């Protein structure tokens, strides 16, 4: 309830800084029509793609980052790092020229240093930290990957050197530090808020080192960012970045055609966009998966035979044809085929009404049953139309005597909070990878640790599954890791806590005068290199 109350405070906190216009399509501003509102302005506290797209790369930087040209880990706020031979100590050497945002509510007096790194990670690691419970004490990505049990200490060596001491070697540790969630906050700003007894503002009125700084947020309407004049990387070309929050996909397209948006998320009418002389349609093959998740703590989905029956009864190809228009492939397992850990021996359940009926009868439901499916209320790359997907599944399941009630009346923030509390029975959702390591498809969304944070929407915990994930992270030998992931995939195929449906491409549409790369195979969007002519 604490987090919910803080979000309710947001309109009040920001009411004094509202402007009257959304910006203009000038050479100095970009308007991005987004599909939903952020849940927070701190990526540490959420995992939703809508929030990550809105805040992570615009406001913040990480110690290290993935390089867009080769997806390898490279320097960011840390100019270099060193890993000991046993993999249990990683030392980062910080840049000395990184400035934090100066905003209406904060003026920094120093550049980034080790204290900021310690604050950013100790806040989420230490339950006794004065900021740990400010937004509810939930740091879902870090808690789901067992960050707290892995990191014994974050040590300040000097003002520009920080060392992470690990309890064991972990082959995904650096990749996790390069994700959208591992952002660096300002310890000086936190001290100011503590002195004002205004701790709650840390995640609502953000301060980072990223290419843009926060100006205003009108709940459900817009977010406005201004250029960070002293950004440590190359100077940002755009002075003002506006997120126009437009949940309707047809509404976003209408605004694009009416010159009310420069770029739109998850466009429809691809062929029409391609034919328009002033518009461009872009796509990237994403590391993602859409799925139907079963709450395994609630009947009848506490019975794996029921889950298996539902899996056999769903016609995935029909969903691919109707929802993705061929711009996706059937998900045979959780991992996309482009992952090095993908295993061709893992077979899809396939579509068989006879097998589905037999399994349902074996489970004790010869006459069928009634179930709810919650449909994702926003468009995502992994599922551009969850409501229609739910209707297709509803029709499929009628053939085996299963009556489906579709729940689609929640807005995104409420939907996400209720899912984390396990209020759902089954849900159409998905996952977009934060980095290319295959562990990112397993640990954050299906481990026992992620069940405890609510990020595991299946609320499923399997010790054999977790053991294979753990063993994979203990070695850097790719062949050994792949063996463990293959075993994990077989467990998922048998237990079916969720049914993978599709691996899709991510699209965006823009005016042709908008230059620069926005989309990446994983992670959020990045406006730092965007310009207009």
Short structural summary:
This protein has 533 residues and is of the alpha+beta class. It is 31% helix and 22% strand.
Helical content (DSSP H or I, runs of 4+): 25-40%
Average pLDDT: 91
Rounded to the nearest angstrom, the radius of gyration is: 23 Å
* Uncertain ranges: 1-20
Helix and strand content put the structural class at: alpha+beta
Task: Give the total of beta strands.
Answer: 20
Q: What distance separates the N and C termini?
A: 47 Å
Described by strand count, sense and barrel closure, the largest sheet is: 12 strands, mixed
What percent of residues are in strands?
Answer: 15-25%
Number of helices: 18
Overall 3D shape: globular
Organism: Thalassomonas viridans
Pfam family, one: SBP_bac_5
Protein name: ABC transporter substrate-binding protein
InterPro entries: Peptide/Ni-bd, SBP_5, SBP_5_dom
Explain this structure.
It comes from Thalassomonas viridans. Residues 72-452 form the Solute-binding protein family domain. Belongs to the bacterial solute-binding protein 5 family. Pfam families: SBP_bac_5. One of its GO terms (molecular function) is peptide transmembrane transporter activity. This protein has 533 residues and is an alpha+beta fold. Helix content is 31%, strand content 22%. The chain has helices at 2-14, 49-59, 114-125, 140-144, 147-150, 173-177, 187-195, 249-257, 270-275, 304-313, 316-324, 353-362, 386-398, 412-420, 443-446, 448-453, 463-473, 478-495; strands spanning 29-34, 64-66, 73-75, 78-83, 89-94, 151-158, 161-166, 212-218, 222-227, 240-245, 263-265, 279-285, 288-294, 328-330, 369-375, 402-407, 426-432, 498-511, 514-515, 531-532. Strands 1, 8, 9, 10, 11, 12, 13, 14, 15, 16, 17 and 18 form a twelve-stranded mixed beta sheet that branches. A four-stranded antiparallel beta sheet has the order 4-5-7-6. It has a two-stranded antiparallel sheet with strand order 2-3. Helix 10 packs antiparallel against helix 12, helix 11 packs antiparallel against helix 13 (386-398) and helix 17 packs antiparallel against helix 18 (478-495). The longest helix has 18 residues, at 478-495. It is globular and about 70 Å long.
């Amino acid at each position: 309830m604490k987090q919910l109350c803080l979000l309710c405070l947001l309109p009040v906190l920001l009411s004094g800084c509202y402007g009257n216009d959304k910006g203009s399509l000038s050479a100095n501003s970009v308007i991005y029509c987004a599909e939903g509102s952020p849940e927070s302005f701190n990526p540490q506290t959420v995992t939703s793609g809508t929030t990550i797209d809105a805040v992570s790369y615009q406001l913040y930087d990480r110690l290290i980052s993935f390089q867009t040209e080769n997806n390898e880990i490279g320097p960011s706020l840390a100019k270099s790092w060193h890993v000991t031979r046993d993999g249990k100590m990683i030392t980062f050497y910080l840049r000395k020229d990184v400035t934090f945002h100066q905003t209406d509510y904060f003026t920094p007096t120093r550049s980034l240093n080790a204290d900021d790194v310690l604050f950013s990670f100790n806040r989420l690691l230490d339950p006794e930290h004065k900021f740990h419970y400010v937004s509810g004490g939930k740091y879902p990505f870090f808690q789901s990957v067992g960050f707290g049990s892995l990191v014994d200490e974050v040590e300040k060596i000097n003002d520009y050197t920080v060392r992470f001491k690990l309890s064991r070697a972990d082959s995904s540790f650096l990749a996790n530090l390069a994700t959208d969630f591992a952002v660096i906050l300002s310890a000086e700003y936190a001290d100011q808020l503590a002195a004002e007894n205004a701790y709650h503002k840390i995640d609502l009125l953000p301060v980072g080192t990223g290419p843009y700084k926060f100006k205003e947020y009108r709940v459900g309407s817009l977010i406005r960012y201004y250029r960070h004049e002293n950004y440590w990387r190359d100077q940002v070309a755009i002075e003002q970045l506006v997120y126009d929050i437009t949940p309707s996909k047809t509404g976003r397209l209408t605004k694009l055609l009416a010159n009310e948006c420069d770029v739109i998320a998850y466009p429809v009418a691809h062929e029409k966009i391609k034919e328009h002389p002033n518009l461009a349609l872009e796509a990237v093959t994403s590391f993602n998966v859409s799925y139907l998740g079963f709450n395994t703590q609630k009947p009848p989905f506490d019975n794996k035979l029921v889950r298996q029956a539902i899996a056999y009864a769903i016609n995935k190809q029909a969903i691919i044809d109707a929802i993705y228009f061929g711009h996706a492939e059937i998900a045979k397992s959780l991992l996309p085929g482009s992952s090095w850990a993908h295993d061709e021996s893992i077979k899809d359940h396939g579509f068989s009404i006879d097998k589905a009926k037999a399994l349902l009868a074996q489970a004790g439901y010869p006459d069928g049953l009634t179930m709810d499916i919650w449909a994702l209320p926003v468009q995502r790359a992994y599922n551009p139309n969850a409501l229609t997907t739910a209707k297709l599944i509803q029709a499929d399941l009628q053939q085996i005597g299963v009556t489906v009630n579709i729940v689609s009346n929640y807005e995104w923030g409420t939907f996400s909070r209720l899912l984390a509390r396990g209020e759902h029975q089954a849900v159409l959702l998905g996952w977009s990878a934060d980095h290319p390591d295959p562990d990112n498809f397993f640990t954050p969304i299906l481990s026992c640790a992620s069940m405890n944070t609510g990020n595991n929407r299946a609320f499923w915990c399997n010790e054999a599954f977790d053991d294979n994930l753990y063993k994979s992270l203990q070695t850097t030998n790719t062949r050994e890791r792949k063996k463990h992931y293959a075993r994990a995939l077989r467990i998922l195929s048998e237990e079916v806590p969720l049914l993978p449906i599709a691996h899709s491409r991510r699209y965006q549409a823009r005016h042709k005068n908008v230059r620069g790369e926005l989309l990446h195979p994983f992670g959020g969007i990045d406006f730092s290199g965007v310009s207009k002519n």
